Amino acid sequence: MLAWVFEAAKACPQLDNLLIATDSAEVAELCERSGWPFQLTSPDLPSGTDRVHAVAQQIHADIYVNIQGDEPLLKPEHITALLRPFSNPQADVSTLKVLCTAANINNPNAVKVVAAADGRALYFSRATIPYDRDGARPQYWKHIGLYAYRKEALDRFPTLPTSTLEQTERLEQLRFLENGINVYVEPTIFDTIGVDTEEDLKHVEALLLH
Q1: Alpha-carbon distances, residue 117 vs 30, 33, 114, 121 (angstroms)
Q2: How confident is the model at residue 83, as a pLDDT?
Q3: Strand locations in the chain, DSSP E?
């Protein structure tokens, strides 16, 4: 799985530098055997954003991209879309959305996002948002868990207390919203499958080996 994700990230020409951040000795050993650059981070870090922040203390950049190790369907088009909002100086953090399939509208594992007309995220939720009170059949968007951060926003994240909404939904990006940090959401036509279960793995294997 990690090899798939790393190779997919290597195929993205927009990325200047790649590094695997892990708190696992087993993953670090795999990286050493494979010749992949890596950095061991504290096992006490509670989120992927905290892990990226730890790396940012050692490696300087203006923008950091967070690719989770369970996203083997990553494409260069995802990174192009992810970086696009930073032409707007108001964008502190960026992420992606894709049209939500009917099967995922009521699925709490498929996080939904609602954004303003300019792309600024209004809310992320495991609930079905917006709520269709009058049967208007709105367009639903599924959040894709890829992120990019300006250095200033990334440095602020661990200094902020875990927010109430973040704890309630178990979604770390809500800490940014609750503290007035702008998250911009860019649409993409390319969905991904975060591999969380054996069924997800079989589905992704079939797609990648097709």
Answers
A1: 44, 47, 10, 9
A2: 97
A3: 20-22, 38-40, 63-66, 93-99, 112-115, 121-125, 141-150, 183-187
Q: Which residues neighbour 190 within 8 Å (Cβ) at sequence distance 6 or greater?
A: 73, 75, 77, 78, 98
Which secondary-structure segment (H or E) carries 174?
Answer: helix 173-178
Structure pTM? 0.90
Q: What is the average per-residue pLDDT within 35-54?
A: 94
pLDDT recorded at residue 99: 97
Query: Could you tell me the residue ranges of all domains in the chain?
Result: 2-77+87-201
Question: 73: pLDDT confidence band, cut at 50, 70 and 90?
Answer: confident
Question: Does residue 202 carry a pLDDT above 80?
Answer: no
Fold of domain 2-77+87-201:
Spore Coat Polysaccharide Biosynthesis Protein SpsA; Chain A (3.90.550)
Contact 175, 162 (CB under 8 A): yes
Q: Assess contact for 71 and 181: CB atoms under 8 A.
A: no
What are residue 21's DSSP bridge partners? 39
**Cα dihedral across residues 45, 47, 49, 52: positive or negative:** positive
